[in-house]
Structure formats: structure tokens, C-alpha cells
Amino acid sequence: MGLVAGTAEGIVAIAQGHYRLRLAPPAGDVVIEPIGRTAALRAMWRAASAPADDARGPRWPTGVLRLMSGLRRGPRGLTNALVEAYRRRLFLRGHALLGRATASYRPAPWPALSEDALLVPPVRDAGRLADVPRHGDDAGGGLMLQRALPWLPIEAGWYLLRLSCRGVDGDPQPLLLQPDHGHGPVPDRGVFLSADAQAEGGQLLVMFDSPALSLWLRTAWRHAELAVESMQLIRIGRLRALWEMLRGSVPGTGTLPGETLRFLRESRTAGLSAAADALLRRYNRLHDIGPEPYAAWTLCFDTLRGSDLAQLRLRAAAFGQGPEFSVLVPVYNTPEPWLRRCIDSVLAQVYPRWQLCIADDASSDPAVSRVLEEYAAKDPRIRVVRRESNGHIARASNTALEMATGAYVALLDHDDELRPHALLEMAQAIVDDPTLDLLYSDEDKIDGEGRRFDPYFKPDWNPDLLRSQNYVCHLSVIRTSLVRAVGGFRPGFEGSQDHDLVLRCSERVEPSRIRHIPKVLYHWRAIEGSTALSRDAKDYAAAAGVRAVDEHLARCYPGARAEELSHGHYRVRWPLPTPAPRVSLLVPTRDRACLLRTCVESVFERTDYPDFEVVVIDNQSSEPDALAYLDELRLRARVRVLRFDAPFNYSAINNRAAGQCDGEILGLVNNDIEVVSPDWLREMVSHAVRPEVGAVGAMLYYPDDTIQHAGVVLGIHGVAAHVYCGMPRGYPGHGGRVRVAQQLSAVTGACLMVRRSVFEEVGGLDESLRVAFNDIDFCLRVRAAGYRNLWTPFAELYHHESASRGSEDTEEKRARFVGEVEAMLQRWGPQLLSDPAYNQNLSLSSLNSEYAFPPRG
Predict the structure, then answer these.
(1) Please, what's the b/e burial string for 819-830 (b: 16 or more CB within 10 A of its CB; e: otherwise)?
(2) What CA–CA distance (Å, rounded) separates 775 from 752?
(3) HSE of 486 in the Cβ direction (CA atoms, 13 Å)?
(4) Helix, strand or coil for residue 301?
(5) Rg (CA), the chain
(6) What is the model's pTM?
(7) Residue 481 CB neighbour total at 10 angstroms
(8) Could you report the per-residue pLDDT of 507-539, keeping only the tens digit for each?
(9) pLDDT digits (tens, 9 = 90+) for 369-381
(10) Rounded Cα gap, residues 659 and 640, in angstroms
(11) Cβ-Cβ contacts under 8 Å for 501 (sequence gap 6 or more)
(12) pLDDT tens digit sequence for 439-469
């Protein structure tokens, strides 16, 4: 509505005609009066064409130009253009009353006109926690740019960005400008603008490769709020973008003709696309624009400066006689620059109690011996042994181990680098808990130019994930006596010798003596031929890895076997008891016979498990086709139909059904589930029968083959959410974890298997949580009872998500939902913010494992 002399006024069109609404102070009386179509259009024209209060709104000629676009569609098109302009004006006016700022946005290149857009506080995605207040949000201060008609997208293309923005304290802030496609900002998309880039003033060239519902504009600093003085986002064409890149890529000593000739030469030799990419990189480098979010994250939160290193040295000095580390480095024909970088990274450690044990595996390159002798003479803590013959990495590592005198060994490859505080962080953890036997950190990769990329922010101890991939990897620190007790490194496992070692050590260690340090302490060198660049670069490593897992299973879990997948991942097939346990699949339903029929028939037609029953629980169905299908099911073998004649309560329905069936395994299955893979039940039950495992979840897809459930992460958007929801089938996820089975804190109840004994031990589902979060609460109680919840991608089903129950679309439902949220926060509050399966450096504001700005630790 608009304001006229303190009165709110607007036009409403319904099927019965047009009406003018007035809301008059002080009592807020509402006056509704019918008006004719012509009068309504005239009123909308006056509102749409009048200047805004701040004199920046569209004036009369601009308003006419906006409406001209509708003329080509005739009178109806002109009317629609006027209505759209009027609605846009109302949106802008409403947000202005809330004190929200506006920006200028041009959705298409010239001659398109600019329009006012909104800068609003970030809102949630439309998923399960859309209305939940944030708790412990890590997004930092920020705004979302969206068009005045919010269903219109921010178009893909090239833009000129003119931005005047500071923190509320007046200092420049490094910013992220990231597209949001409906599930929060995407981690590998967007633009990083350093404080220096903004200080240049003028305009910057940016590009978005796909349309977005909105753009997140947020500071990268902790708890910083933004004050936007002005913002313009102006769409331009490709030729104008090329001109801006050429003009903006001229270095201080260069010329525009010289830069143009360079571009033309590169176009002839490498092609136009490659030349344009190189030109954009030069432009971004000159203007301090970082298009890669991890580069922004490291710059803001993980770059050690002089003052930081001084503080770290003070911490190290306070330890006194802390633990000594023996850093094991097997060397073979390492290129001199990388070998020097490797050794220098150890010399640069702020923690001084270390010993560097280098075993040269009979390198044929004389430069290796020369460099090693030079460094051995430089520092007495460096010991070097040259092997008589080449024995490969496992034997060379054992030679280095023989030199070790420290209480712990740290594993370092000959071309990789330690962070300066790597050993300090490990020492701190050991001083805090001297019982620790095995420690590991987060890691990233580093290229030949020193650029950091592709981090792996790892979970806490996760043995099923370790059997699926060597996620521990770098940096690994292990008690020396334990390494020697298990026999050191085993020849024959070259390429996966560290994975084999960690598996064997973990068999002798209680989980409480294993510690994850959620900090990047290791740079893995990514050069041609290295495993860091591509796991396929060393095929023998994958073969050795699957043998290491297979032998571990033979020692600890006879009957289980490992299979090799791509990219250094493995699948463990767990055995079923003989005979296979009976499974009772509990399927609550209400009406919607088509959904139930698809669910039940797909279970019988596509399930290869030998012994199961389907227990359908009818919750007050009344539609004739549903009742007829239920009668049909009553006559089917291996099907039982129960009646639950009370208001919907998912927990009570399943608890009641569990008490009336006899399956050793209980399966919670929504009536909108459809089976995809025939071995889905065999896969889930093979995990559920493991004594240490509690609840088991599956991979669920929407009918369009996007991910609906790849596990639940606690804390996302307040309580919990389905990670990677909406991503395409086959999406690997952070660290490739969506490809493999692993321990998670919770899984969805839409398809969940659990032993009856575990279900009864924890008291079943909590009936006070009638609709939402009963599955999350159940999983957390199972975890608290000492079991591990597990998710597997190898049980695949479609999920038509809550199709028969509907959405939270009434005040009563919303009130119930808010109450269930509060119950979860009161019961599990601190645990919701520290999911051990989700790293503190990953965001709780996104479903896509985006980097946390700032980290939560």
C-alpha cells in the first residue's frame, strides 16, 4: 500500500471487481470501496509513476518507458506492465517502511532500464526449518539483493558492480557476493571482494553463470554488520565485458594497445575461450577480486601473519617439555624445489621439539643427496639415511621409523608442506589429553604456485568412513610405540601404506584415544602425476587401498568384504545372518491410494530380500479408492493392515505398529517412498544387524533425480536439515562423502532401519513430537545409548516427500512446528551446534557444505 496523508491505501483486484482499501489511523479502521477498472488503472498509474520520497524513484518519463515494453503485446500487455510496475512500487514502499535499503539493478544490457532492487536481511530456504529462529548462526552480518518482485531472478551474465559499503564501524570489509538458488549460497560460486578492491572505488566487473533467486552480500569477518551506502548492479553484454576486462587489465607499466595485442595473440594460439579466461584472471588479480570462495576463506581466517606467528611461538614456549615428534619423510627423486619446500616447512615449525627423519630410497638424482646433506648440516634435529637400494615407499618409511626417538611420529610426504603451527596444535591436544594415541587434522591442496585449494574439512572419528576412504590421511600423528607394535609400514601396500597403517592402529585403540584437530595443518602438493591432483594418477594406490580394507575386515569382521569404487573410494559389503532376520516395514498412510500403491508394489516388485512383511497403518483414510486398496491389501500375503483412529501423530503410529508386529528389524517407511535399487533392504539390514550400529538411513531422491536425503546434519538452520538436498544425483559432496557409507548423527525417518531391541531400549519415538524432528530425536537418543547411526548411498529410493500429509500451511500447524523446534532446542541444544560428523569450518547456513564465514570454533 501507499501512504497518503498518514493513510495506507492500495488497489485490490479480485474476480468480483476492483476495490480501493484504506487503512486510517489512529484506530486502524479499514475502508473498502468498489471502483471501476479505469479508475483502478489510473490510481495504479499515479502510484507507479510518482517519484519516491527520496527522489530516486521513477519519474513520469521513466514510467512511460517502462510501460512501452508492454505495448508490443497489445492492450492486455500494457495493462499487465502497469500492474507489475504498481506491484513493484508497493513492494518497495513496504520495505522502505521497514527501513530497508534499496539498490539499483539492471536485468538486461542496454537499452534495458534499471530498476530498484531490495537489500533485505538473509532469509532461510523453503525447506524444513524455514520459520525457525537462528541459533548460533555463522553467516556473519549480511544482506540479500533481490528484485522488487522477488519471484523474478537475478539474471545470469556479466555485470558492472558499483558498491559503496563498509562495516558499521566505518572500516572496509572483505565481502562475498554469492548466488542463492533456493538452498543458501553455493560454496563454489560467487565473487570475493577484498577491502582493497572496494577501496579503489569506481566499478568492478563480475560474472554470474546461472540465474539466482537472490545474491548474498555478506562480510567475511566475524559478527561484522554491513552499512551499504549505495549499490548498482548493471547488466552488460559480452563485448562491453571484454572491453572492461581489456581496459581494467592494463598493469601500471602497460598500455591498452599492448594488452589488446596480448589478448589477440592468445586467442590465435589457445582459442578465444582460453584467452578470455586468462584475461579475466589478470583482471581479477589486478583488482584483488577472488572468484574462489576457499581463497577468500583462507585470506580471512587461515592466513598466518607475523603477529600471529609471534603469538604461536609464545604458546609453544609455555609448554616447556611437551611431546617430541619424529617427522617421517621417505624421499625418492624429489624435484629440488618441492623437497626444499617440504624441509623448510618443518624448520618453520613454531613448536621446537621435533626430529626430522629422512630416508632417501636410493634416489638416482644427485641433487637429492646434495640438498639433504645441506639441510642435515644446518640443523642437528635433521637426520638423513640413504638406503642401499630402492625398496619403495613402505620400506623407506620403515627406515625413517627406525631413526625415530620421539614419542609420536608425524607422516609427511616428500613434496608436501606442514603449516607452521601443525606440530604445535598436535602438541596442545596431547598436553590436554596425554592418553591420545592417534591424531589427525584437516588438509588442503597446494599447487606449484603456492595456491591453496580443495580443502577437506573432516568429521571426527568415523570408522565406517575410514573403511570407505582414507579420510584421516594428512596430517596423521601416531604414538611411536603403537606404530612399532603393529609392525610399521607393510611392503606390498605402496600408495595406500598410510591407510593400511591407520586401519591396523585403529584396531588396537579405543575411540576416546583418537582425536581430530579441525584445522588445516597440511598442504598436499598437487602436481602432475600426484595422488593429490587425481586419485586415478596412481591406479596401484586404489588396488592397495581395497586390499588394506579387505584385510582389516578379515581381521575384525569375518565375512565382510571390500569392493573398489572410483576415486579411491570403497564399498564394504557386510554379511547377513543365516537365516536373514525378518523385517517389518511400517508404512503409515492416509488416503492418496496412488502413493501407497506405488510404495507397496515397488517394495514387492523390486526388493530381493528374502523375509519381510509390510505393515500398513491406516490413519483415518476416507477416500473410496484408498479404502478399496486397503481392502485389497488385507488379502495379500506378507501384508497386514492396522487401523490408527486418532489425529495424525507419526511417533504414536509407528510405536503402536511396532508393538503389533514381530520383525527382528523394524523399518520406518513413508507411504510416498518408491524403491529404486533391488538390494536396498539387504544393504540396510546388513548394517542394522551389526551390534555397534543403531539407526540406518538410505539415499533418497526426488522424482527429478535430485537428492532429497543424503543424511542429516545437526544445527543447519537451527535444529537439523538434509545435507545436499536439491543437488543432482551423483553429486560427490564435500570430500566425496556422498559416494560412501559413513557414520552420521541422524538420518531421516522416511526410510530408516533399526533393530527392534534398540528401538525398545530407547523407548521408541517420542510421541510429544507428533510430526517434526521425531526421527532426529530418536537418532540422538540411539547415539546417546552408545550406538552409531549410519547412512549408506547404496540403498536408493525415491521420496515424494510428505505428499499425503501436506505442508505446514495453517496457523495450528505452524504453532505445533514451533513447539517441536523449541522442544528440540531445550533437549539437545548444545549438541545441535557441534555435530561430530560435520566440521566446524563448514556452514550451518547452507545445505551444501559451504565454508563457514566465520568458522564456529
Answers:
(1) ebbebbbeebee
(2) 9
(3) 22
(4) helix
(5) 31
(6) 0.78
(7) 10
(8) 999 999 999 999 999 999 987 755 555 545 457
(9) 999 999 999 999 9
(10) 13
(11) 478, 483, 486, 488, 489, 490
(12) 999 999 999 888 899 999 999 999 999 999 9
Burial (CB < 10 A; 0-12, 13-18, 19+), residue 513, is middle
* Category of 769 on φ-ψ map: left (φ > 0), alpha (ψ -120 to 50) or beta: beta
Q: HSE, CB side, 13 Å, CA atoms: give it for residue 91.
A: 20
Helix (H, G, I), strand (E, B) or coil at 142: strand
DSSP string, 512-573: GGEEEEEEEEEEEE--TT-TTT-GGG-HHHHHHHHHHHHHHHHHHSTT-EEEE-STT-EEEE
Buried b (16+ CB within 10 A) or exposed e, 169-198: eeebbbbbbbbbbebbbbbebbbbbbbebb
Q: Are the C-beta atoms of 735 and 710 separated by less than 8 Å?
A: no
Reported confidence tier of residue 67, pLDDT bands at 50, 70, 90: low
Place of cell 525378518: 582
Handedness of CA 193, 196, 199, 201 (dihedral sign): negative
Other beta carbons less than 10 A from residue 638's beta carbon: 12
Residues 6+ apart with CB under 8 A from 205: 158, 159, 160, 161, 241, 244, 245, 248, 283
Residue 793, burial from CB neighbour count under 10 angstroms (0-12, 13-18, 19+): buried
Residue 505 CA to residue 479 CA, distance in Å, equals 10
Number of H helices, E strands in the chain: 24, 37
Residue-by-residue DSSP string for 175-194: EEEEEESSSSB-TT-SEEE-
Cell of 773: 524432528
Confidence category of residue 815, pLDDT binned at 50, 70, 90: confident
Q: How far apart are CA 683 and CA 120, in angstroms?
A: 46
Using the 8-state DSSP alphabet, how is residue 851 labeled?
Answer: B
The residue among 530, 562, 567, 568 whose CA lies nearest residue 548 is 562
Q: Are strands 157-167 and 639-643 parallel, antiparallel or unpaired?
A: unpaired
